[in-house]
Design a protein that fits this description.
The chain is mostly beta strands and about 200 residues long. About 5% of the residues lie in helices and about 45% in strands. The chain has 1 helix and 11 strands; from the N terminus they run αβββββββββββ. A hairpin with a 2-residue loop joins strand 1 (about 40-45) and strand 2. The longest helix has 14 residues, at about 1-15. It is globular and about 45 Å long. The chain starts with a helix and ends in a 10-residue tail after the last strand.
Length: about 200
């Protein structure tokens, strides 16, 4: 009985310790190429990662979606869309648009027309809606000629992984943000059911 009380006391002490000392802050995922369904980058030094929205009738807002237009393997384009549906900061929407995505290698970002899907330009580009902390407003930022790149490290057997970095600016060119430490590692077979809390 004495040992039981000692063990119970230890569990109570450990269970009641100050939870504020535990760091549950999100961190950038490691750069992997195994299809573990991770994504992260920094936007002007602030961490951006995907978060699902709250499902409701007729919609299930997902933190990450990978789509294509056309027929395999000759897609007209592919898009990697990443959203933060919870608090939206520093970015609540982003799209990486790829043309001729068929192999590993560098995909240099080009000038965007600030549209996505079939309305976007037929080039590789990156487009985000980010929060401007200095003006306390949301702004659209897009890539421009050679402003950055996405490096695809693996694209086979359903694994789609790589890194990205560069600069994006507003359509009027008056404001710019920097994307650094970008990395993703997706399993395209399990990605549609992955939860991004």
């Amino acid at each position: 009985m004495k040992h039981f009380l000692i063990i119970l006391t230890v569990f109570l002490v450990l269970g009641c310790r100050d939870s504020s000392s535990i760091d549950n802050s999100p961190i950038l995922p490691p750069e992997t190429q195994t299809g573990v369904n991770t994504f992260g980058c920094t936007v002007n030094g602030r961490l951006f990662y995907p978060r699902d929205g709250i499902p409701n009738v007729g919609s299930n807002p997902k933190g990450v979606e990978f789509s294509a237009l056309g027929n395999y393997p000759d897609y007209i384009y592919n898009e990697l869309t990443v959203n933060n549906y919870k608090d939206g900061k520093p970015v609540n929407f982003s799209t990486m648009h790829f043309v001729n995505l068929k192999q590993i290698g560098e995909y240099s970002w080009k000038q965007t027309n600030f549209k996505t899907g079939i309305d976007g330009v037929n080039e590789n580009y990156f487009l985000v809606r980010a929060f401007d902390y200095s003006e306390n407003v949301w702004k659209w930022y897009g890539s421009y000629e050679s402003s950055g790149k996405t490096v695809i490290a693996k694209y086979e057997n359903g694994v789609f992984s790589g890194t990205f970095s560069g600069k994006l600016k507003t359509e009027d060119g008056k404001s710019e943000i920097e994307i650094t430490n970008g990395r993703f590692d997706f399993n395209l077979f399990t990605l549609p059911v992955k939860e991004w809390p």
